[in-house]
Amino acid sequence: MLWRRIMTMGSTILSFLKYPGSPEPNQTKMQHTEGRPDPLAAVRIHEFRTLVASRFLFIMGLRMMSTLVGWWVYNLTNAPIAIGVVGLSEFIPAVSFALYAGHVIDLSEKRRLLSRGLFLYFLASLLLLTISLPFFSGRFEGHRIAICIYLVIFCTGIIRAFTGPVFNVILAQIVPREILQNATTWNQGAWLSASVSGHAIGGFLIAWLGNSGTLIVIAALLGSAFLNMLRLKPKPALQLRGEKRTWESVKEGLRFVYKTKELLGAISLDLFAVLFGGAVAMVPVYARDILKVGPRGFGFLNGASDMGSIIIILTLTFFPLRNRQGKKLFLAVGGFGICIILFGLSKFFLLSFFALMVSGMLDGVSVVTRGTIMQLKTPDHMRGRVMSVNSIFINSSNELGQFESGVAARLMGVVPSVVFGGCMTLLVVAITWFRAPALKKMEY
After folding, report:
1. CA proximity to 364, closest of 312, 295, 420, 421
2. 3 state DSSP class of 109
3. pTM of the predicted protein model
4. Domains along the chain?
5. Closest Cα to residue 66, out of 248, 207, 203, 170?
6. For residue 134, is pLDDT > 70?
């Protein structure tokens, strides 16, 4: 049976390479091989490939930027809490504008909105590049340079509120509903591939090219993502202007998330797990001061979690979860908490790398499950608002978790703060298990 599955996957890939034609979304149907869904169904759509390529370049650039900024600020200030302030600088504007951004997304032409966001990120990378140059950095103390970095990151938080959710909104306009699960898995796989590449390569680039050289590479990636995005066809709004007042429109999105218990439970579980389990925020401290592996080791540790995630995403692309997805989600988040505790206690590089990689594999299960629920449960005309609410819970929890990790490290010490975060993640899983029975029983 295993050999037959391998042969089936091989023939599917070969047929795709031989016949790369990309039919329009309304002509695409989920193909089956021996009763199993075609794992390449979404990839056969030309616009989907264009969208995923742009997102790959964009996320790789952003992950390099976050890797660089964390390392840069910590070396400027020698204070772990300064890393947390980076996360807070992006969290505040991202959350403050998120609900309004969802309303704007539903009323806007999606390709234009996303292209503008990518271009503004490109400009932000050029600002950071200017700050890193000797004629600027040589004139100011480390703390003043850090403040300038915080201001740029604050601006990217505003851009992120409008840009982040649009990728998932456009996704549902490109692929038909019957292959949304397949498209979501590929989309998350591309995101995680870019994330692991950006984290790992970012560490190497810092060691080889320094801050300025790394920022040149980042600017090139973000500029390429912007140019590639222009190849997409316009994606018009599905909600007409004037249908609802702004606040009524925002409240409609909030009510939908609150009433959809499986969706609310999944994003709440992930919110608190990431909030307390944000050990990655302390990776610069572990790399430099505890494990003493320098920027190269920092690159490996920073990419370990995402490396594990992409492994599991590729596995789920060909062997998707077929039943009891809710219970498996709980087990995955609980295992994530255990890995964070192990990482916090480790004094050996390989053990730390392994703990982070397995935590990424378990987090990948959560990412695919939550993303599939969101795509299948959300009506087309509300996707912008629902994705923006999700960004408050999920995306911004990373930055808030980064700040929480920095504060906890200041109050408790670095190692106790990471172990505490893992323990709190396990507590959140236990509470949600009893408080969210709909999520526990969920299947799709």
Report:
1. 312
2. coil
3. 0.67
4. 46-232+245-440 (1.20.1250.20)
5. 203
6. yes
